[in-house]
Design brief:
Blueprint lengths: L9 H9 L20 E5 L2 H11 L3 E5 L14 H9 L2 E4 L5 H9 L4 E4 L8 E2 L2 E2 L16 E2 L7 H18 L4 H25 L7 E4 L5 H6 L3 E4 L11 H14 L3 E4 L6 H10 L2 E4 L15 H16 L3
Parallel strand pairs: 1-2, 1-3, 3-4, 8-9, 8-10, 10-11
Antiparallel strand pairs: 5-7, 6-9
């Protein structure tokens, strides 16, 4: 348990005054992670919040800067959240995913700053990733290419991040290091099992190509020998060109694609329009950027298993 006393900083008092709050207290939303008797962790968004909770267990108090149902890419941080960040013991974020978070972290005096992007390898992905479809992907959207932040959708990379987070917790809160080590090992074991489920479940499919609205599944596609063709690039709100849509319709016919996947936090309008034009089905493939009532599961693992089933149905298991 982290029992050291803290003094609320000037920025915390200013934020509390601005919001009409007498004190900053730990709560169930994204407001504050400070002033508890535990190891206080601010996580940038759900996949990192989940890691912190699973690894930290009862020793940690975790809050997320991104509310459930909020699109994390466009997050703006409130004064209260900035104050809470400054009063926390650790922040867990993914550099270059959320510019507002990067700015807040760089200006914060929080002692332990854990960048998930530094704990595994990132690659450049555009709107097509993996497999043979690259040979007939005629889109040249170089502006969509960049370091893909969606590492948590690959169980192997997510396990690497978990191991790094565990070590950071051990160092920052040494009296609970043994528990962090044990819980990290248990989480990595579950992620290894999930990796095996995906590998086995997607080994023999009728097609290896799938279409998504948002290029979030590049690492997953590469891991399991699939090809992701995204309508949009890494930005889920971007609009595809008419040429890109035509190319996707041609590719779908050539590769036996049956389904256009959309996600829970972004409108399904584009997916349904393309699917209707190409006589395809639509279904959900969840990038797990947040858990809501619309999610097909209650946590990372259950949603990933729902994703696996959706891919098996769309790709056609032999």
């Amino acid at each position: 348990m982290n029992v050291r006393r803290r003094h609320i900083s000037g920025i915390a008092i200013a934020a509390a005054t601005t919001l009409g709050l007498g004190t900053l207290t730990a709560c169930s939303d994204t407001a504050s992670a400070a002033n508890t008797d535990k190891f206080d962790v601010v996580a940038a968004f759900y996949p990192l919040q989940y890691l912190a909770e699973q690894i930290g267990g009862s020793h940690v108090h975790v809050t997320s800067l991104t509310k459930p149902g909020q699109e994390p890419h466009d997050l703006e941080i409130s004064a209260q959240q900035t104050a809470a960040l400054g009063e926390s013991d650790a922040v867990l974020y993914l550099k270059n995913l959320q510019p507002a978070v990067d700015d807040a972290v760089s200006q914060s005096e929080v002692k332990t700053k854990i960048d998930a992007a530094s704990l595994t390898t990132l690659e450049k992905h555009g709107n097509e990733v993996g497999g043979h479809a690259a040979s007939h992907d005629t889109s040249k959207n170089d502006e969509l290419a960049g370091l893909d932040p969606h590492i948590w959708l690959d169980p192997v990379r997510y396990a690497q991040v978990a191991e790094g987070v565990g070590k950071a917790f051990e160092k920052a809160d040494p009296k609970n290091a043994a528990d962090y080590k044990t819980r990290t090992a248990a989480l990595v074991k579950r992620l290894d099992a999930l990796n095996t489920e995906f590998k086995t479940g997607l080994a023999n499919t009728r097609t290896k190509v799938f279409i998504t609205t948002h290029a979030a599944f590049g690492y997953l596609a590469e891991r399991y020998g699939l090809t992701e063709e995204a309508i949009n690039g890494l930005d889920p709100e971007s609009e595809p060109s008419a040429k890109r849509v035509k190319d996707l319709e041609k590719m779908a016919k050539a590769d036996g694609v049956t389904t256009v996947f959309y996600e829970t936090l972004v409108s399904d309008k584009t997916a349904k329009t393309i699917a209707a034009d190409a006589n395809l089905k639509t279904d959900v493939l969840d990038p797990i950027e947040g858990i809501t009532k619309k999610s097909r599961g209650t946590d990372y693992f259950s949603v990933q298993q729902a994703n696996l089933k959706a891919l098996q149905t769309a790709l056609g298991t032999k």
